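Supplementary Methods, section 5.1.

A reviewer requested that the exact input to the structure prediction be made available. We therefore reproduce it here, unchanged from the version used in the analyses.
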Amino acid sequence: MSVVPAEVLPGSAQAVQEPVREAAELGPRARLWPALVAVYRAQLSRARVARIPLLFVATFQSIGIMILMRGVVDGGGEAQAVVAGSSVLVVAFVALNLLAQYFGQLRASGGLDHYATLPVPPAAVVLGAAGAYASFTVPGTVVTAVFGCVLFGLPVAHLWVLVAVIPLAGAALAGLGAALGLLAPRPELATLLGQLGMSAALLLGVLPADRMPEAVRFTRDLLPSTYGVEAFARTFGPHPDWAFVLGDLAVCGGVGVVSLAVATWAYRRAAVR
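The structure derived from this sequence is encoded token-by-token as follows.
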């Protein structure tokens, strides 16, 4: 009796077995800029209805603070600090406080798993959400600045500098808010950290720096929004020193790059857990 390999038998399953097909390759990952724009539009459309009432709250809060400070501040450099700090406080309320709450809830509810399944770079998720939240601050910041200038009798000729202050301060504060929300182990803690950050922006940004102790001034210099406040406040003078204004804006932009990079790292860390 001769032994025939099973591979050559005509009726064997292995003889009729079709060749194994190669696994289909997945599509390429989305590029950063198109993915960022898509996330930005999605976040903007989702948050448009829910965030508008909160934007009114942030604006009225800043306007109320300026009205209260009008009783103790007459004008000069102190009035400039109050108006600039109150204007940037709108950015802090939305970009820092609300974004920390959003990412904290997103992490707790498992929403990060949805983004992790999409071929979207982590930086696009963080930058898109941060840009959407920062966009809501533009009307409130402009209204607060104009109201403050009228209230304290400050010139409005250089309010165009808000075109640079809002995105740079917004990037710095949004990156910080996203990092706090993603690194907090619980959403309640993320909300607490966001509130503390906004309170720091209120106390250290609105109050004139000349009246603060030296230790508090050092803490003020560590706050990302401080440099946006300083850049905006310098433009109220009769002859603004634009070199210092650009220097403050550059520092604010550098802090924004660092804070957004930390937020992107925190997103990767939270998404893989």
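Confidence is low (pLDDT under 50) at residues 12-27. These observations are discussed further in the main text.
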